[in-house]
Amino acid sequence: MPQMATYNGDAVPEKLIEEMSRSLARLALATEQLAQVELAIRKHHRSLPAESSAKKLERLRGIGITTSQQLCAEIMDWRRFTNRKAPGAFAGLCPTPWGSGGERIREQGIGKDGNPRIRSTMVELAWLWSRWQPSSELAHKWAPELAKKGRRRKMAVVALARELLVALWRYVVYDVPIVGAVMKGEKAAVR
Question: I need a surface site. Which of 64, 152, 173, 175 has the fewest CB within 10 A?
Fold first, then answer.
């Protein structure tokens, strides 16, 4: 092993070299374990029937195997939601009103009372949706707000995430196509 040196030419202390070796070994182990988990996810996904929720979601451009598996694993049964407000509330993506009993009612932002894993996945998926499904009605509706900076942009992506979750619920349970959404392998229509 070549002798390592610091910026000024001094020899690197042995203890630091040993610590770096241990860190590299931990990184190699974590990388190997991650590859095993990804292989198991792919294997499980291949074993699912074609009409399963995860396979239906994965057919949409911008949604991968891991995301579709995670959404289906966290939600368990898409059919348990009885109306369009339930998926958003389950994920904690619904607004929380504030009122003191008077005429003034204000929004306090999202409640975050729901499942945090679904909420973070849906916010990430909303960003991916705006990138990979620009011709969809949802992405087109929220594009002006997502182009802004700051707080308005963050609020817009959460609103897109909520609407996208409802649209995915309708797609999985009732086979209602998402307007303008493109399946993998199809060409996107230009707006």
Answer: 175
Distance in angstroms (rounded) separating the CA atoms of residues 36 and 38: 5
Give per-residue burial for 154-191: e unless 16+ CB within 10 Å, then b.
Answer: ebbbbbbbbbbbbbbbbbbbeeeebebbbeeeeeeeee
Number of neighbouring beta carbons within 10 Å of residue 107: 10
* The amino acid at 64: G
Tokens encoding 50: 């074609």
Residues 62 and 131 sit within 8 Å (Cβ to Cβ): yes
Tell me, what DSSP letter sits at residue 130? H
Two tokens, residue 160: 């897109």
Residue 31: its pLDDT value, please?
A: 98
Q: Which residues contact 71 (CB under 8 A, 6 or more apart)?
A: 54, 57, 118, 121, 168
pLDDT tens for each residue of 81-91: 888 888 888 88
